[in-house]
Amino acid sequence: MSETPDSAVHAVRTYIEQHRAAFLGDLAEWLRIPSVSAQPDRAGDVRRSAEWLAAKLTETGFTTVEVWETDGAPAVFAEWPSDDPDAPTVLVYGHHDVQPAAREDGWHTDPFEPTVVDGRMYARGAADDKGQVFFHTLGVRAHLAVTGRTAPAVNLKLIVEGEEESGSPHFRALVEAHAERLAADAVIVSDTGMWSETTPTVCTGMRGVADCEIELYGPDQDIHSGSFGGAVPNPATVAGRIVAALHDEHEHVAIPGFYDGVTELTDAERALVAELPFDEEAWLRTAKSHGTLGEAGFSTLERVWARPTAEVNGIGGGYQGPGGKTIVPASAQLKLSFRLVAGQDPAKIELAVRDWLAGLVPAGIRYEIVFGAPTRPCLTPLGHPALKAVAGAMSRAFDGAKVRYTREGGSGPAADLQDVLEAPVLFLGISVPSDGWHAPNEKIELDLLMKGVETTAHLWGDLPTALLATER
Amino acid sequence: MSETPDSAVHAVRTYIEQHRAAFLGDLAEWLRIPSVSAQPDRAGDVRRSAEWLAAKLTETGFTTVEVWETDGAPAVFAEWPSDDPDAPTVLVYGHHDVQPAAREDGWHTDPFEPTVVDGRMYARGAADDKGQVFFHTLGVRAHLAVTGRTAPAVNLKLIVEGEEESGSPHFRALVEAHAERLAADAVIVSDTGMWSETTPTVCTGMRGVADCEIELYGPDQDIHSGSFGGAVPNPATVAGRIVAALHDEHEHVAIPGFYDGVTELTDAERALVAELPFDEEAWLRTAKSHGTLGEAGFSTLERVWARPTAEVNGIGGGYQGPGGKTIVPASAQLKLSFRLVAGQDPAKIELAVRDWLAGLVPAGIRYEIVFGAPTRPCLTPLGHPALKAVAGAMSRAFDGAKVRYTREGGSGPAADLQDVLEAPVLFLGISVPSDGWHAPNEKIELDLLMKGVETTAHLWGDLPTALLATER
Ligand SMILES: [Zn+2]
Ligand SMILES: [Zn+2]
Fold it and tell me: Tell me, what's the ipTM?
């Protein structure tokens, strides 16, 4: 990082200061477009959002800007090649669709009329994810301004999808269809957050997920529990026993082979997690939960970030109306999902679950199990030079603050990029937990938004050296 | 039974033969009244059914006949005192309401237009329970005719309720309100069946039932299983663990104290059960089930007749729609019921379940458990003189055939009579499994119906001696 002296930090800030007002005005314009992918009647707005972004990226200087169609909402692709033939290629991921929002959900202002109060911009999508996509437009301009370049030091690509809030149903197909054009030496996902306003962090991984539905069939119809109860197998009882067999008494997942290959946390990683100023009471409030329970031997953060899990998402069977009904139900259903961590292969997990299940279902009960499309886990090794570059650029933006590492317990389309493009995935986000993703009064802290701009302004200059180091 | 020689059997049959056509015509008239208690728009028909029966019982000779109002459908009470001041009092129980039925459910004939084909009368309620109530009208007349009496040898009472097919919601209150008028030395429930056409049997008991609903509350709302899964307790998982904890690996109920006081089957009783020509394949077809599973050490019949059980009637929690949803659910629900046998006290079972449950729910999960009104088990001791009288009368009706003993796995209002009136409950039924209770094309075998008439014609003469023996 020695090639960017303090004067560069100063120059970047000066440039950003000059363009901040126009930048925020543009962002507000984008946020006024209610690009809610989950609402069919907003499909026109999602398209308008894509076209607005495409026009703005062209204006920014991207030399190729295209709206890519999918079987759902359109994505935006943009490319700005470096003028350095040896430059590495970086692909930035984000999304331009937003969660639904309505004033009556508890918003103090119109969710699609951005409002700045006390240095915060309130609007649906301000943090998730329009603000965090948009800081790249000013970031690359600042990078050029302070380095005096006419093209970025990296081949910069952007893919901004339009269906993330609907589960990215067409994203993998899109990435596969355009794999060559999306090819990159590193992917930077711009759709996560930091630990807090005062603790800048870089996310280093997301869990994967595999999910299945299990149907259990007993009698051909609900039968009378007086006449037959106690002598025939009950599929709802079997469902309960399957659930109970998911874990042992230490809350370890008890499916044989489940932990095979798991990349265990190193002592160094555990120390980094333990360094974070974690307030379990506050975390429980966020989780709207009234107690912690998880795998023995791990802390709450380790459990949600770095440990695989088995979760019951849904269970049903028999009579669920008011009062009672004395039946042996004809069927029962289970929806299970398994969060996966680096080293776990969803295909092997599926086989392990199938084997385990076969041993649990008694004679007289027929069952079916169907798996959904899995999402692989992704993990940036702590020693990866690009990760160091991201952390370094962020530290410079945060006045030299120590940048720590977090992970994300959820799963996302980042894994599709990692899998299809075979590129390391890094995460860069400046949103904070109080930003209220998916909640009323979503906002972004404008000072942090500018730190995002600053971070990328430094990063594009730093990355070539860092990635060159990788290749050697 | 020596006081009724073979000539009595002959005399009863002759009398019945003479009155059979008129009797069947009357029954058909009653069956034309669609007294479906579960259908509010049939309330008028249920009342008409009660009034029709009351008129017919008056015509039969009962000296007191009353329609008793409840908070639901009316019941019919009738009394015909003996002219012998030492006569014991017998109360016959039945019901005049029927299950719903519609031609389009698969009936070959109009369910409310009785049709006789091949010695069977097809109609809703033919077996359950109008036919089995109605044989008492001809039975008592035959008893008088062949004994030359002007009043029965027992004080004969009838209580015929109008809501059995709706769960008898007001029956206990009715019995409590009229306990003095219903007081009896023995109750004869005329609402069960026999093993088969060729194996006459007397039912000697019904299981009781206690049921509860359990609500389990975890997070205040469904939360994201990626962000929080693996670190907070999941109420659907807890529901499954509760279900799994209901039984041990031998399918014994594992709730501490559950079996306390259970009246175990004697070797003699087990031998009697084993004597029955049980065809497990056929039984499984009736149960519409594809395998047997139950408490180790007991046969299928023992399991459903004489062993207490714990059954899951319903389970629900989290997402049950199509596809998946990666949540930790906010809540889960369980509906459990426990079949009880003689010696088990529902109040103690409730306490045992509450204690057991308290030990299963982890910190962070709040729960509620609510019990419904229990039904006690009832059991006629095999040595009871009245039971011997019933079996003896039946044997005579069945040409001296050996009468065997069964039980009923279900639970019914008989227990209310046993509890409130503190009288032994006996069961007398001539219906067979093929009669199709609650199903399309319900029918009664007319020859068996006449055996019911014959049985009571003998029984009222035999019971005084038998019950006198009890009192000594
Ligand atoms: Zn997002
Ligand atoms: Zn009935």
Answer: 0.90
